[in-house]
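Subgroup meeting minutes
Present: P.N., E.W., G.H.
Scribe: E.W.

1. P.N. recapped why we're keeping a running log of single-chain structure predictions: easier to compare across weeks, and new members can see raw inputs and outputs side by side.
2. G.H. added today's entry (601 aa).
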Amino acid sequence: MISTTVTLAAVFVPIIFLEGLTGRLFREFGVVVVGTILVSAFVALTLSPMMCRFLLDPRAGHGRFYRASEPFFEAMTSGYRRSLAAFLHARWTALPMVAATVVLIVLCWSGLRSELAPLEDRSNIRVNLRAAEGASFEYMQDQMDRIAIYIRDRLPEVAQAVSIVAPGSGGGAVNTGVFNLFLTDPDERTRSQEEVFRRLSADLAEFTGVRSFPAQPPTIGDRRSGQPVQYVLQAPNLEALVDVLPKFLDEASASPVLRFVDTDLKLNRPEGNVAIDRRRAAELGVSVLDVARTLQLAYGGQRFGYFLLNDRQYDVVGQVERDDRNDPRDLAKLFVRSGSGAMVSLDNLVRFDETVGPAAIFRFNRFTSATVTAGLAPGHTIGDGIAALDAIAERLLPPELRTSLAGQSRDFADAGSTLLFAFVFALALIYLMLAAQFESFRDPIVILVTVPLSLAGALASLLVCGQTLNVFSQIGIIMLIGLVTKNGILLVEFANQRQDTGLSRLDAALDSAVSRLRPILMTTLTTLLGILPIALSLGGAAGSRQSLGIAVVGGLAFSTVLTLYVVPAVYTYLARARATVGHAPAALAGVAAAGRAALGR
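Output recorded in log:
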């Protein structure tokens, strides 16, 4: 009892101390489970015996249900004894079986797709839009109005659409916009959010005036985080980044895994450079400060003040009319006063050059950076997208360029490494605790044989059911450590007790497995029935947690069947011999003889 309680609690203790996104998600989960295990152990050791004293009548006989069901259980136990005895007669086959489960783990692991978390239907789709650099606010507004009409007429699932030009705190670039689409409730529409998203993604290609980047809000993380794949290129200077970025984007766009490929570093922003001819200005007696001030007043859009009208405040902004500031030749319409008082046209004092340049220069970890963002083609996950970009980076990037991850991709990588640490730490903690409980370094190894058995079942179940490796399925795999080692503890502890009474390791393994069959099946079935609703995805918010249920149900069912045969066989090889059959009391001599007869000895 103490061993199983400590083991179960030890599995969830590392989860409590996890950092980052995984810690924020599952810390309360770990606290609740550990607290529940400890309280239930206290109840089982104190209150349960007391209640048995008052509620159970030792003089009462068995009821009709017992008499009707007991023949079945006795037949099951007898059949298990015969099959286990035959298996132990060739118990060396347990070692190839363990090796086969390791191979199955490797195959399933390589075949499973990985992601941060499965997408849930949250009745929300976000579409980011971008026009050509230099596009005006009016142009962007007109393009978004066209898309709004399409959404109204072609997507009846959209209950509300909110559009913003130049989004972001403090105002974004005027050539950008965003649509936030809110769908009707899932039970009120015939198409899922994913189906609406695919239809929208295909139809937005018809609007060639802007580039569209639709995205579904992630199950975990910021719903405004944009595309799921965010891959950061870091270079020592802008020139090194500019040399490789176009090739990298071309390769990424051609990848069948990715779509909606884009980058935040834009090198096509039109710029107008106005250079003052200082020599000419000096000859005409014009101050350079006066030239700069004239340009600022004409084109700067400076706020001079405000006025109140009908209880509303209006800004006073100084700027020439739009028709007088659309062409570089409009500089000839501006004049500045010389020192002699004459009016001089600005086109006699300045030189105008048109060029292109980056809209902004970004930094990441103190390096000049460009973040490549991308969506995922149907049937692919974040892990596939990152792997595709890693392969492109290995082919194209020179040694001085580095890569990193951001957004959902970074959360995905951090969660994977954090959960791997929790898994390894839980195994080490369980081994040390079991070694202390059993006063042996060999018995815990026999118990931990159940871990690869359960891991193979969990991964195979995820693969067969079309699930992915994500934070929920990985937490389910960690849970399996405590659940399946409990069965191993029951078998090894009881076998050691049988050895202490004089049975050999072989007889003790057979007798303990048969004696513990019903408790193992009973606890396993209660756990399976408790997790089954999650595996079946029953309930409105069970979709993303389904992989957790499938991992636990599949791993527990698969490992329980193998544990009942493999653990007794491994016990006969690894467990320490504690007594000899010759010292067995008379009460157990018949059990030993029956075991030897069943094994053909």
